[in-house]
Amino acid sequence: MAGTEVRRRRPSPSEPQTSDEAKFDQPSASQEPCAARNYGRSKNAYRLPWPVRHFPYYCFYGFWFIFGLLVIRKTNNAISAVRYVKAHGPSVGVDILENSREFDALVRMLDREFMRPPAFLMLNQFALNMTDNFLCNTQSLGVHDRFIFVTLDTVARDAMRKRWPNIRQFHWPTPSLYKPFSFAEGPYQMIYLLRANLAISLIRRGKSFWMMQQDTFWRKNLFDLNYEDDLSYDAIFDQIGIDETSERAEWVNGANWFIRAGNNTLEFFERLSDKLAHWYTPDMGIMIHQCHTWGSVKCAYIPHKVAHSWEWMYTDQQHPPHIIQLDCETDGGSKLMQLGKFGFHFTNRDGTCNEEKVLLARARMANGTVSAGYQRATFPSWGRLQFKAYWYIVDCIIWTPYIGPLLKPYLPLVGYILMITM
């Protein structure tokens, strides 16, 4: 019938098919999918071995497993450090310091023998080698009469009396600091707390002062710049970063700083001490936060051309500073060996000073030829590599528009926590 569609009836499975019907229903070889034709031949021929195919999964889960272990380790370290400070903090409390005969003797010595503010340095027996190295470096600059070493055990006290009898001491035995310790541990926090409480006690007596560290190389005399005479600020700190344009410029380094006695600085250190007693954070992180968020205290910063950190050695080494702090190592022994590789080891085997090495190190700094420069082959230590990585991450965070400037005053407070590998 016209217009009527004729549909071909498909036979049931029980009916036999004609040859034409079988040909119509069976796909030709040219119509067969390529994957179907080659399935049996290619499946095993091109398939990667099982371990290779699952390697990305191993990396993914392995990374998060290690990360989790580091987080657990850091959490345990934080809890242990805070407990350690709470347990031993009273031994370096402000009341105990101020009411002691030793502190009264210290104040009388400052009144009688110091025309200019003193510089305090902390010392236990495990930093004696580093201290000898520092004093060999600085003895020709005529600055030893400004130093007062806070000796924390009798071994350090007696060794200093024998080796450097003309250098003054404030002996404050602290059993919680008798053993060696590393970065971000409980005793490390105790050093910070002792410095803060000593600062409070000195400020209450009207004494301005410097705080310094022995892991610093002096090319020139820092005291010649007379930072103590500038009344435009309450405190002046060294700073980290490459230069004044660095993302971390005006972040306190915490190795060398001057404090002028006054009500503003007294409040500054009272709050610092209170936070150190309860928080797992470095003192420089709290200093950065208070300097950038408080309006009462006036903080200033020593220019990078005068005081720099180890980062200067990984620049083009222009504008050699007066002093450079050489930190980022794990302990005193390894630090001194690392400094020797860079040409900053100045003691002979018999304990005497090698003035020739001191002059050579100063000349290399002046010429920009320190062996640790970025074009040199000297490979950084593990501790320094970690710090370089963390500083890179921090610079990226601070550089972030809008968010970075908001986080800059607060990021150092969680520095210990973010450094999960240390």
UniProtKB/TrEMBL annotation:
Database matches in InterPro entries: Nucl-diP-sugar_transferase
Domain Nucleotide-diphospho-sugar transferase, residue spans: 143-339
PANTHER family: GROUNDHOG (HEDGEHOG-LIKE FAMILY)-RELATED (PTHR31967), NUCLEOTIDE-DIPHOSPHO-SUGAR TRANSFERASE DOMAIN-CONTAINING PROTEIN (PTHR31967:SF10)
Segments of this protein annotated with the region Disordered: 1-33
Entry keyword set: Membrane, Transmembrane, Transmembrane helix
Transmembrane portions of the chain: 55-72
Protein name (record): Nucleotide-diphospho-sugar transferase domain-containing protein
One Pfam match: Nucleotid_trans
Protein's organism: Mesorhabditis spiculigera
